Amino acid sequence: MERCDVLVIGGGLLGCFAARALTAWNVSVRVLEAREDVCTGVSRANSGIVYAGYDTRPGTLKARMCVKACQDFPRLCDALGVRFFRCGSLMAAFGPTAERVLQKKLAQGRENGVAGLRLLSAGEAYTMEPKLGPGLTTALYAPGTGTVNPWELGIAAFENARDNGAAFCFSSPVQALRRAGDAYLAETPAESYAARVVINCAGLGADRVRELVFPPAWRIVPTAGDYLVLDDTVSGFVRHVVFHEPEEKGKGLTLIPTVDGNLLIGPTERLWNGSADWATAREGLESLAALCRTVVPGLPLTEVIRSFAALRPNPYAVREENGAWVPEHKSINGFAILEEDGLISLLGIKTPGLTCAAELGKYAAEKAVHLLGGPGRNSRFRPERTAPPAVRDMEEKRRAALTEACPEYGELVCRCREISRGEIMDAIRRGAATLDGVKRRTGAGMGRCQGGRCMRQVLEALAADRKLPPEKINRDGPDSPVVTGGYGAL
Q1: What pTM does this model have?
Q2: Which DSSP letter does residue 281 get?
Q3: Rg for the chain (alpha carbons), in Å?
Q4: Those residues with Cβ within 8 angstroms of residue 356's Cβ, 6 or more apart along the chain or in another chain
Q5: What is the pLDDT of residue 487?
Q6: CA–CA separation, 408 vs 411, rounded Å?
Q7: Domain spanning 2-44+151-220+315-371: which superfamily?
Q8: HEC profile for 91-120?
Q9: Is 225 strand, coil or helix?
C-alpha cells in the first residue's frame, strides 16, 4: 500500500493546480488520474477565456477569486512559461433587452472591483471592432479579459507540480474510497493508497467519488456545448473576445481570438446525451453559423478547420424522493466545495473554473494543510517552470543554434504549425502517451490539414518510444486506435 499525506483524485486543471499548491508545503502528495494523461476530461475542451469578473455575483467566493485571478494571470503565466493574451472583451448589445443586461453587469462588475469596466457607445464599439454587424447599440468593455491555451496551462501546472515532488499515477481510476481510522483508503485496479486528507477534483465524476463515502448532497448534471475553430488566416478579424448578449432568451455567440492565432466560436448549450465520444451536434453547429451571419456577417466560415464539443459540469443540490435522489430545479451558481471529515470535494467547478484554477488549487491546498496540523513551507519549492522549446516562435539565430545542438529541431513534422521532430520527441519524454497527448503539448495536428500530413510521423515516434506496433497507439485514451486494419492502411 502506498502512503501519503494528501491524495488528489483527478488530474485536470484543478487537480494539477491543487497538487502544485500542495508542493509548496512539507507534505507528500499523490495524484490519481483515471486516464493516461492529464487534462483529458472537462479541461480538454473549453473557451480558454480568462474572465475579468463582472459576470459573477458580488460577495461570493467565485467573484473574489475571479477578480484576483484575472489580475494575477500574467504573473502566473510568466512563472509557468505559458502564453497569455490580454486582449480585452466587448459584450455587444443589439437592442433594449440586452442593454439592460449590460447595465446590470456594469454595476455588478464595479461592485466586484473589476478595473476599467465601462459602457461604450455604438460608435466607440464599432471603432474597436469594425466587423460587428449592423444594429449594435452599446457594448460593455472589460480591458482585463484575456485568453490562454487551456492544455498549455494545465500541462504546465502538472509539470511544475511533478518537478516539485508530487507523484502522478495514471490509468488509476478510484474504484473504492473509505475512511479507516485517521486515514482514507483508496483502491485502484493496480494499487491501494492511504492518505490523511483527500482532495476530490474528479470533474464530471466528483459527485460519484464523494458518494463512495457520504450520502448524496450535490449531483453533477452536465450540459454540452459545440465549438467551431477557424484557421489562423482569420487572425485579427476580431481583436477582442466578443460576447453577444442576445435579445431573445438563449446562449448568444462568443468569439475568442486564441493565443495561436485561430478564432474560436461558441459554445452552444444543450442537454448532454451521456455519450462518451464528445460528439458535436449538427443543430448546435448550424446555430453558431446562423448567429455569425448576424453578429459578424463578414466572417469567412469557409475557414472552419475543426469543430468540437465540450461538457459543462453543472452542480445541483439533491433531495431524496420516493427512494431516488432528485435534483432541485435550479443549479448552484457559486463554486460548489464541500469539506467533510478530511475529504475536500470540488464539485461542478464550471465557468470561470479555468480562470480560477490556480486560486482554487491554493484554496483546497490550504484547507488540506490546516487539516494536517499546519506543516511548514517547503523551502525547495520552485513556482517557475521552463517552457519547452517552440521553434515557430524563435528568432532565427536562436533557432539555428538549437538545430545545431540537436538536429531534430531542424526537421519540421507539422508544416501547418511549424512543429519540429525535436518538439514531438520532447513532448513524448514529458509524458504524452497518445496522438492527442502530443497534439495538446505541441500543436501538431491542429493546423489547417488537421494532422493529414504529420499524423503518421507522430504515430511512428510514439510507437518507437514505447516499443509498440503502431496499431497499439491510441488517439485519445483507451480503445481509440489510430489504425485498425494494419499499419499499411494509414
Answers
A1: 0.96
A2: -
A3: 23
A4: 62, 65, 66, 69, 335, 349
A5: 61
A6: 5
A7: FAD/NAD(P)-binding domain (3.50.50.60)
A8: EEECCHHHHHHHHHHHHHHHHHCCCCCEEE
A9: strand
Q: Taking the domain 391-472, which CATH number applies?
A: 1.10.10.1100
In the chain, how many H helices and how many E strands? 12, 23
Asked whether the beta carbons of 156 and 357 are under 8 A apart, the reply is: no
Is the sign of the CA dihedral 431, 168, 345, 193 positive or negative?
positive
pLDDT reported for residue 133: 97
> Can you say whether the dihedral through the CA atoms of 191, 192, 193, 198 is positive or negative?
positive
Q: Copy the grid coordinates of residue 434.
A: 497518445
Strand 192-200 versus strand 218-230 pairing type: unpaired
| 8 Å CB contact between 450 and 418 | no
Write out the DSSP string of 200-222. E--GGGHHHHHTTTS--SEEEEE
Q: Which CATH architecture has domain 84-145+221-312?
A: 2-Layer Sandwich (3.30)
Minimal CA–CA distance to 347: which of 164, 200, 189, 198?
A: 200
Separation in Å, CA 137 to CA 124, 134, 243: 10, 9, 14
Q: Which residues pair with 316 in a beta bridge?
A: 219
Phi, psi of 365 (to 5 degrees): -65, -40
The angle that helices 150-163 and 435-442 make with each other, rounded to 10 degrees, is 100
**Domain residue ranges of the chain, discontinuous segments joined by +:** 2-44+151-220+315-371, 84-145+221-312, 391-472
From CA 366, how far away is CA 463, in angstroms rounded? 41
DSSP 8-state symbol, 300: -
User: HSE (CB half, 13 Å, CA atoms) of 289?
Assistant: 12
Are 56 and 109 in contact by the 8 Å Cβ rule? The answer is no
pLDDT means per 10 residues, the chain with 490 residues, are 97 98 98 97 94 95 97 98 98 96 97 97 98 97 98 98 98 97 96 98 96 94 95 96 88 95 96 81 95 96 96 92 85 90 95 97 98 95 96 92 95 94 96 95 94 93 93 92 70
Q: For position 409, what pLDDT does the model report?
A: 95
Backbone angles phi, psi at 173, to 5 degrees: -65, 140
Alpha carbon distance 44, 36 (integer Å): 13
Half-sphere exposure of 330 (CA within 13 A, CB side): 3
391-472: same fold as 2-44+151-220+315-371?
A: no
Instruction: Collect all residues with Cβ–Cβ distance below 8 Å to 80 and sequence separation of at least 6.
Output: 153, 156, 157, 160, 383, 384, 385, 387
